[in-house]
Amino acid sequence: MCHISIRGKGLVVGRGADLQPDAERDVPEQVRALEGTYIGAWTEYGIDGQGEVVERMAWTDTMTAGSAEATGERAYVATTDEMTFEAAQGPPFMVEGKEGFYLTKDGGLGDYFIETYGQLHRLTRLGDNVWTFAALAAEQELARLGFPEGASGQHVVVKVVTTERGVETHRISRVTTVSWKDQGGEERALQFVSLSGYHQRQL
Q1: What is the DSSP string of 69-89?
Q2: DSSP secondary-structure letter at 10?
Q3: Which residues have CB under 8 Å from 186's CB, separation 6+?
Q4: Region 94-114 average pLDDT
Q5: Which one, of 41, 36, 40, lies nearest residue 78 by Cα?
Q6: What is the pLDDT of residue 6?
Q7: d(CA 36, CA 102)
Q8: pLDDT, tens digit, for every residue of 152-171?
Q9: What CA–CA distances, in Å, run from 133 to 34, 107, 150, 193?
Q10: Which distant-in-sequence residues (6+ apart) come within 8 Å of 3 by Cβ?
Q11: Which of 36, 114, 159, 194 has the smallest C-beta neighbourhood within 10 Å, fewest atoms?
Q12: CA–CA distance from 104 to each of 70, 162, 170 (Å)?
């Protein structure tokens, strides 16, 4: 699963354009299989004042996926992610979302998607249990990573799912490429791993 704009899978492309938007459908077995509890740990990286890559924050989380349903052109589970940040005061941060598949006209599985933080990401399958998507890095996000105003960037997220000794692990990395001008007005560019982490669940 993916909390940060970063969990998911993908299969055969299909838009389901001819499906009735409000038609309820049988939930595919592959979507019901997403239900469960996932435990994770994450580290986000950015830069310091010298432009060197440093850890910016770290957190653990528990994501619960359930209430599988198929409506219109999509079949999905509802997700609730409870995130606890290192050295943070107060209660955990809660994020709700959806994760699942678009459905093809014949009811088969199409593209995988992740919907969270008000954003919808459609994933591409690269191989068995390997998925990816690309997204622009928002200016406020780059500021959180230590980049100055006016910086621009692009994320590429890769997820690989493995199973060992009855535990399913979703390993996720986000590679970010950023361009900006430093305090001296010199143009800079950097490509680095800005996020790494995992989700696990017992099968």
Answers
A1: EEETTEEEEEEEEEEEETT--
A2: -
A3: none
A4: 92
A5: 36
A6: 40
A7: 20
A8: 999 999 999 999 999 999 99
A9: 19, 24, 24, 15
A10: 40, 61, 63, 79, 81, 83, 95, 97, 116, 199
A11: 36
A12: 12, 27, 26
pLDDT digits (tens, 9 = 90+) for 61-89: 999 999 999 998 999 999 999 999 998 88
Q: Which residue has the tokens 């994770």?
A: 40
The stretch 128-136 carries a mean pLDDT of 94
Nearest-angstrom CA–CA distance, 194 and 116:
19
Q: Sign of the C-alpha dihedral, residues 180, 182, 184, 187? A: negative
**pTM listed for this prediction:** 0.84
Beta-carbon-side half-sphere exposure of residue 140 (alpha carbons within 13 Å): 0
**Mean pLDDT confidence for 99-120:** 91
- DSSP state for residue 24 in the 8-state scheme: B
